[in-house]
């Protein structure tokens, strides 16, 4: 039913009205979601290969819509990007995650928290100042914050994005390249970016224990990352055999259902306590 026009806008022959109305109302809902406390951050452990776990986590946003119920980020983040609402959304996520990290630190169980930036955030010249004031407000040393970005963030205006990244890095934060291997990963980019961490996409990790090809790719990626002085994290690990292979390859951290799903902050505390016992 949907066709793409040359300018990239979807054209609808039938049902266009309902489609537009649906989206307009969703945008209204999203704008209110923050005020109505419908957004919540979940935290998924990034477990060190030789550690108990719980010292690092990725913040992942969830939207509990009053009528539609649970809406996964994969559905409303792209929508927020298209409508320009992402700037406010990212600000909320940053503020919430930084506050939580500050609280964990004060409670004597520090967690380094990772926050996802969207491609459009990298083109916002005001972002570094925003982050600086948020960590200042929360009394959070920059070592406890990591920002995850994707390579597609640079495609439109690489010079502008690079400038924002350098300013963020100068604040002392960690910067991770997310979904590594799925984009137009060029080695030249990786070398030029002021990043500290590389996250290997789930697509390469999934069949790791069975596919020789994927195993070669992951092994060389870990080696490359280490040669460039980066920490390497594998995403989407679901079973022990893959953990064993990644450990043997020298991967630094593992994030996946095998250790823990994304969970609310209180559940994350319980998860950690259970592992420390
Ligand atoms: P991502 O940054 O690549 O996040 C990892 C996704 O993989 C999460 O999905 C997580 O729940 C899922 N995952 C983790 N371990 C496993 C596993 O072992 N198996 C499987 N099948 N999946 C696993 P989620 O939470 O639905 O988020 C999807 C995407 O939405 C994220 O991908 C990220 O691109 C975006 N996103 C989520 N929260 C935010 C946010 O606060 N801001 C922005 N800009 N984007 C966000
Ligand atoms: Ca991520
Ligand atoms: Ca990812
Ligand atoms: Ca992703």
From TrEMBL:
The chain holds residues 506 to 782 of 784 of the full protein. GO terms for molecular function: catalytic activity. Keywords: Membrane, Transmembrane, Transmembrane helix. One of its GO terms (cellular component) is membrane. One of its GO terms (biological process) is signal transduction. The lineage of its organism: Bacteria, Pseudomonadati, Pseudomonadota, Betaproteobacteria, Neisseriales. The keyword Transmembrane applies. Residues 23-276 form the EAL domain. This is Diguanylate cyclase (GGDEF) domain-containing protein.
């Amino acid at each position: 039913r949907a066709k793409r026009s040359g300018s990239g806008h979807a054209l609808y022959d039938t049902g266009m009205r309902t489609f537009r109305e649906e989206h307009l109302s969703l945008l209204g809902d999203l704008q209110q979601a923050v005020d109505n406390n419908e957004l919540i951050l979940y935290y998924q452990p990034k477990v060190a290969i030789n550690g108990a776990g719980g010292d690092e986590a990725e913040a992942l946003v969830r939207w509990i819509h009053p009528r539609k119920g649970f809406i996964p980020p994969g559905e409303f983040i792209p929508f927020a990007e298209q409508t320009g609402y992402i700037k406010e959304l990212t600000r909320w996520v940053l503020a919430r995650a930084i506050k939580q990290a500050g609280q964990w630190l004060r409670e004597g169980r520090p967690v380094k928290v990772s926050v996802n930036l969207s491609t459009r955030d990298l083109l916002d010249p005001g972002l570094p100042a925003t982050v600086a004031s948020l960590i200042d407000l929360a009394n959070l040393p920059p070592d406890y914050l990591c920002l995850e970005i994707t390579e597609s963030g640079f495609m439109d205006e690489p010079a502008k994005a690079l400038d924002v990244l350098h300013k963020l890095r100068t604040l002392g934060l960690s910067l991770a390249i997310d979904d590594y291997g799925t984009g137009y990963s060029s080695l030249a980019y990786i070398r030029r970016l002021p990043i500290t961490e590389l996250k290997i996409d789930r697509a390469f990790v999934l069949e790791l224990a069975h596919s020789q090809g994927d195993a070669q790719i992951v092994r060389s990626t870990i080696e490359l990352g280490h040669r460039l002085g980066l920490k390497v994290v594998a995403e989407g690990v679901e079973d022990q055999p893959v953990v064993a292979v990644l450990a043997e390859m020298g991967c630094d951290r593992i994030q996946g259902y095998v250790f823990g799903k994304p969970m609310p902050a209180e559940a994350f505390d319980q998860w950690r306590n259970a592992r420390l016992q």
